[in-house]
Amino acid sequence: MPVELHELPPELRKSLDEIGNLGVSEEQFHLTRKRILDEAATSETLAALDAVRVAALGKTGVVSIWLKLIGGLPPENRAPASYRFNRLREEVQVAIADRKAALDRAELDAKLARETLDMTLPAEAAPLGSIHPVSQVMDELAEIFADLGFAVATGPEIETQWYNFTALNMPETHPARAMHDTFYLNAHDGEEARVLRTHTSPVQIRAMQAAGGSKPIRIIAPGRTYRSDSDATHTPMFHQVEGLVIDKGITLGHLKWTLETFLKAFFERDDIVLRLRPSYFPFTEPSAEVDVGFSVVNGKRVIGGSDGWMEVLGSGMVHRSVIAAGGYDPDEWQGFAFGCGIDRLAMLKYGMDDLRAFFDGDARWLKHYGFSALDVPTLSGGVGA
Ligand code: PHE
C-alpha cells in the first residue's frame, strides 16, 4: 500500500499550492486524479481504456507532462513533487491493469457462455466423435510396419527400474538415468520403487524374453511414455514407438533401409532424405540420431527435400549387453532398434504446432484434427487417407 501524504516526513509533505512553480493547484490535481481513475474504472472496452492510458501516461499525457516538469523545480521542491506524481502514475497503472483484467474476464465469460454445450440434449444422429491424431498415427505405423513383417508388441506403463534402465545397459550409477526426468512411484514392502516408463525401450527386453532367446524378432511397440517436462513441445505424458529387430547377420544397412522405407510410407513422399548422425544411447552401439530433410514452402516447413534437417528419431545397433539381458547370445544374434516420438510425427505430418492441445480434449480441436472412424489407414489407399 502506498503511504498517505500525512504519513510522510515533513520535507515531503508540501502541498502543490506551496510548490507553486508547476502551475497545478492542489484542487486541480485532485480533480484530474479523480477524473482519470473514474474513467479507467468505467471504461467499457479495451479501446476506451487504452485511450485513458494514453491521455494520462502517454508521451504527452497529463501525468507524463507533470513528471517531466519536476526536473525544472528548485531542488527542495523536487522530492515532494516527485512523490505526488510518481504515486499518481502508480495509481493510474494499477487502475488500468485492474480494469483490463476485469474486461478480459468479462470477455472470456461471454465467450464461454456463447460456447456452452448442453450435455442433456439427445445425441445427434451423425456421430460427433473422431479418431484422435495420435491413434490415427499409431494405426498408420502398425499398417506400414505390418507390411514389413513387424508385429505390434506392448509392455506396462508402470515399469521396474530393471526393465526401464538396468537391462538397457543403464546401471544405477549411470548418468543417463538422470537425463530422463523420471517419475518414481512410492516403493512399498522393501521393493525397489517402480517408475512410469520414460521410453518404450523396456519393451525391447520384454519382447526378447517372450521370444525365449532363440527366435528372430521384428516388432514395433507404440505406447504412452512419461517424463517430468512441460512446454509447447513437451508434455509429461507423450507417445513413442519403439522398433526392434533381432536376427542373425543384422547390420546398420538394414536399419537405414527400414527407416527410409517407413518414413517414405508415413509421409507419403518419395523425396524423403535421411541423415544419420552419430550419437549416444546406452542401449545401442553404434547409435545414430536420424534427421529428415525438409523444404520451406510458403514459409512453412514441409517434410521432403533438403533445405534443412529435423531430428525425428533415435536408433542404433542393439548393444551386446542388452541382447544378453533379453536372454539372447550376443555372439550369435544382432539387432537394431529405434525410438520415435509419435506426437511429433503427427505434428509434422498434420501441421499442429502446440503439443499441449493434443491432450486438452477440446471438442473443436478434435473436430478439426480428428479422423473419420471409417478411414482406416491402408498402404494401398494411402495411410493418411
Ligand atoms: N529410447 C530412446 C529415447 O527415448 C530412443 C531410442 C530407442 C534410441 C531405441 C535408440 C534405440 O530417447
Describe what you observe in this structure.
It is a single chain. The protein has 385 residues and is of the alpha+beta class. It has two domains: 5-114; 133-361, 2-Layer Sandwich (BirA Bifunctional Protein, domain 2), CATH 3.30.930. 39% of the residues lie in helices and 19% in strands. It is built from 13 helices and ten strands. It has helices at residues 16-19, 26-42, 46-57, 62-69, 75-114, 133-147, 161-164, 176-179, 202-211, 252-267, 320-325, 342-350, 363-369, and strands spanning 151-152, 158-159, 195-196, 217-226, 237-247, 274-281, 284-297, 300-303, 308-318, 334-341. Strands 1, 4, 5, 6, 7, 8, 9 and 10 form an eight-stranded mixed sheet that branches. A two-stranded antiparallel ribbon has the order 2-3. A hairpin with a 2-residue loop joins strand 6 (274-281) and strand 7. Helix 2 (26-42) runs parallel beside helix 5 and helix 3 runs antiparallel to helix 5. The longest helix is centred in the N-terminal third of the chain and has 40 residues, at 75-114. The radius of gyration is 32 Å and the shape is elongated. The model has no long low-confidence stretch (mean pLDDT 91). Bound molecules: phenylalanine. Phenylalanine binds at residues 199, 201, 281, 284, 314-316, 337-339.
Gist of the model:
This protein is α+β, with helices and mostly antiparallel strands and 385 residues long.
| Number of strand elements | 10
Largest β-sheet summary: 8 strands, mixed
In whole angstroms, the N-to-C terminal distance is 62 Å
The best one-word shape is elongated
